[in-house]
Write a structure and sequence with these properties.
single chain; alpha+beta; Rossmann fold; 3 domains; five-stranded mixed beta sheet; globular
Length: 383
Amino acid sequence: MQEGVFKASGHLEGFSDWLVDCPGCKKRFRIDKLDKKGESEYQCPECKEIINTQKNKPRQFNLMLKTNMSATEDEPYYAYLRPETAQGIFVNFINVLNTTNKKLPLGIAQIGKAFRNEVTTGSFVFRMKEFEQMEIEYFVNPADAASYYESWVRERFDFYINKIGLRKENLRLRKHEKDELAHYAKACTDIEFMFPFPAKDGSASGGCWSELEGIANRGDFDLSEHARVSKKDLMYFDSEKKEKFTPYVIEPSAGVDRTFFAVLSDAYHEEEVQGKTRVVLKIKPELAPYRVAVLPLLKNRPELVELAKNIFYDIKKRIPAIYNDTGAIGKLYRRQDEVGTPFCVTVDVDSLGDGCVTVRERDSMRQERVAKEKVFDFIEKGN
């Protein structure tokens, strides 16, 4: 987007990190992420050298990625890759309002790529120059903003538990203090997840709380600033109350990459079964790549293979399913455990006579004989 958009949003002036160089390993770190050891002294997380910020002055680095859109170098026309998906929503707010004729509260959701000039990339999916983001800009009457903010915090926290399937003990809410609020925010609450990174004390098993999503009350900062810079009227007229105002915005903003990582790390389990380690992904069934795997006990028996494939073709029309006959049944079970398939359907010799198959549940490994015609209903009920 053009430069004026990010002048209005405050990104060109305020979207920056304070970084400091370590005199030992020469690497650069965000000062707010370092362990403080004394007055003006911090410890390098890499080489454990003490960084004195009186000698090594922290410097501000803007996180915007700039490019020249002009055909010539001597007459540059600068544009910026978006550091978040929100600004496109704000500058198109009136377009959406006019074309949909919606009334407040009005939510606009968007998912897509965002780009930041992270000087110190790393920490897996946490410090990347390109990442996937999903945001909702929820426009409300200023008088209702506080209650909507609290409601969205509860809604989003419950989303990760009930819809995504993360364990509640691995989630927490952290409200921002006034001195850490972004320049646009009146209030902000982070949903944090216990990611499997080394704890601050260096122990590998401790885990580390990190942001999964932030819910912010952005006030009327965005629409007011875009209106001021663009000279456009971005106010809303409430036809029922006969009043005109600049809407406040409640913003749930989440990282898709982080959510994906949280789901995988929360679902990953290792457990001992008959003296061997079983790796199982206890992922919520709705998120699993396959809901069911259909497996013939003997692939050299054509009648078993035919029956198994008929069951598979019937099921895959309705839910994600996979057919596999490339190994012994124990090995096939383990493969499906590792990718999180909730159910395995085994067609054996007895199935040819009684018309029943064995359905195995992933987490408990409980097995039950089910009539082949009722396999889909059995799986749908989650038995």
